[in-house]
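Bench log, entry 3. Co-assembly request; chain sequences pasted below exactly as received.
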Amino acid sequence: MNPSRRSFLKSTGLGFLAFGLPPSFLVRAAGAEQNTRGKSLVVVFQRGGMDGLNVVIPFKDQAYYALRPTIAVKEPASGDERGIDLDGYFALHPALAPLKTIYDKGQLAIVHAAGSPDNSRSHFDSQDYMELGTPGIKSTPEGWLNRYLSEKRAAGSPFRGVAVSPQMPRTLAGRAPALSMSSIEEFRLRNLAMAGALEKLYSNSADPLFRQGGKSLFEAMARLRAIESRIPPSTATYSAGRFGNCLKQIARLIKADLGVEVAFTEIEGWDTHVAEGGASGQLANRLKELGEGLAAFYQDLGDRMEDVVLVTMSEFGRTARENGNRGTDHGHANVMFVLGGGVRGGKVYGRWPGLAPEVLYEGRDLDLTTDYRAVCGEVLTRHLAQRDLIKIFPGFRASGSLGILV
Amino acid sequence: MSSPLTAEQKTIHFLDRTSFGVTPEIVQRVNRMGMSAYLDEQLQPEKISDDLVEEKVSALKTIRLNSGELFDLYPPPKVAKERGMAADMMKAPRMIIYELQQARLLRAVQSQRQLNELMVDFWNNHFNIFAAKGADRWLTTSYDRDTIRPHALGKFRDLLLATAKSPAMLFYLDNWLSVSPSARMPANARRRGLNENYGRELMELHTLGVDGGYTQQDVREVARCFTGWTLLRPRGDAEFRFEPRLHDPGDKIVLGRRITAGGIEDGVQVIDLLARHPSTARFIATKLVRRFVADDPPASIVTRAAEAFHRSDGDIRTVLTTIIDSPEFFSPEFYRAKVKKPLEFAASALRITGADVRVTPQLIRYLGRMGEPLFLAQPPTGYPDVGSSWISPDMLLTRMNFAADLVGNRLEGARVAPAALSDTQALIRLVAPDSLSPTTRRALAETDEKEAPAILLAAPEFQRR
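Structure output for the full assembly:
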């Protein structure tokens, strides 16, 4: 391969797409720096609307197999391509096998029929609602993770809120400074001669948007350079592709004690309108990447998982019935994962509303019995010691505790 | 800024909004002929010769090919293997997208038809498709060239209909698979019923807007109207086809109107209904005012633009003229009020430095890191058009690095002549005449001549237009 071809692959942004090459980054010898070890919440957003019914399969629900003649996942039994039994009623999709060990250790909890109560079936509205923390209200000026950062007003580490994603997600955007990056290694100025002038220029700028952006940028670069050399190398094998690499970066930031309180990343490709597949196929491939990524993150953090809770969510579930293209359309309730040392896992939480025609939401979708804000709220109160939830989720009151966290 | 714009500032503001960036030549031209005559000229791109850039674009192998030819020359690996073709990276489908990206950037930087290019970019984003989704790898070239480009300054209704019939959109939003629930299909057919994806996005994103007054029931009804709008040979010589046997012949009511045309005309009637709906006029006007004036579109201009849209039956030229001719257009509060999106930032930097451009992977990669990999926005919304989306620390850092690499002649594919950068004051007059902030002025004064242009291009002023 000649150099121009090699650089083409690396460069066009298609490299990820085609080969899933994670940019590697340097880890140098140790140096010392005082930092704080604190608790972190990691949010994983599955953009596109994951089909929760094929992820945690209600194999004992009579209606499930009738609704999905070609894409259902078979009930647990011996042999390949079958669900993995969780509790005699629900089964985990076989592509998520790496998560079963964590579930068995009691550090993975599953909440079924959960999600955002708004009935919008627009990806973009539903993602906004979920990220803003105010289903049905689009004018909310900041995301709920950002509101948490504002409320807490802790000492200002530029890494308190960090997204490892292509763009700053709405959930982390708002008044409190937050950071987004694609990788630690590339987070530096290539012409150091300019650094001083630019830092001064931006920090004194009368343009608030750029002053704020510049301030976060220069602080973060300084902190990263100071500790870069002593971030321990990762011991786990992450799934190839962007998602695995993003989780790996988050694990490193947490291990470096940079004061990460909330971290965010996302994984795309859940909009399975066509040829969704069952135990194998399109959805299974996404789940494989998800499951391997989460399992590697869990392994990578090791004992440090005691300080970390990771929550997954997706803007909506999908239609209970498969559509005309062996896929599913935009639906309602979904399934969420809660992973961490302080999690009371090994259990599927949430009241199961069933899939019989008369109990389907609007006659077509899994009904919602647990608001995602109840799940996230419990993580905020029990894990991050946030007292006043109403400030994070205005207008929402949880009806009692779910008991997912110790 | 609160005092009225000076003549020099007005020219820069006008060009910053109607082109991919100011150059010394274009400023001279506007000064010579006046803004109004210049705008008239830009609104008739077919009369502007553009040989220089089109010659460069023609050197790209894929831009003129149809989808069948593209599929044959750049087949997926499995097909290539079956056909006994040697494995060749340069013949992979992603080369097609790479060439599209190159053409987009080349035209943004060098086309004389700046306003037209800007509108092609706008409509590609409004009617977004994701070029890396399945068959769209071979369909996007024609989408940009044959669907969007001919209508970029034409009638909205024609543009809407063209996208509805385009193989790229039929594939991207799955309508090609949507069939009447009552159509008799083989038991194992891939198509076995309604798919709402296109019906929903057609109303939410292409026409009415999410608050435009439609219901879930309307989504279903519109999807039923478009059953049978499908395509032949998605992976090959793709072509729109209406299949009567897949069409739902039953009664349909869309937005309270009974659709009675029957057959392919059901869909056309929906297009007409939506293209002429007041919510569409308002939604499209709002998006255009957001593009040309401010993130938070001033209601007065939106109302005037929506009226112009309605009055002219969706004539895009008329709407643009209305927006630019609005008295508020030159209001000081909108001067440099917009943050350049990555393509605008990169193109304007290449334009103002007079860089000799040959698009390279490094250039394209920079756009990706700034948050705008061209033709690769996955969701149907396309990229956002509000400033705060584009200035996360990471994106800001990438812009600074781009400026430093460009000015230092370390950007592969862009050569800047030292003479173009020798007069910092002249550059400032193209960026912010008599309106540079004291901080930026001080930073430039404290920097040596060689670094000054890079500092200017990395400064907040140049991130705005």
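DSSP finds 25 helices and six strands in chain B. The longest strand of chain B covers residues 229-232.
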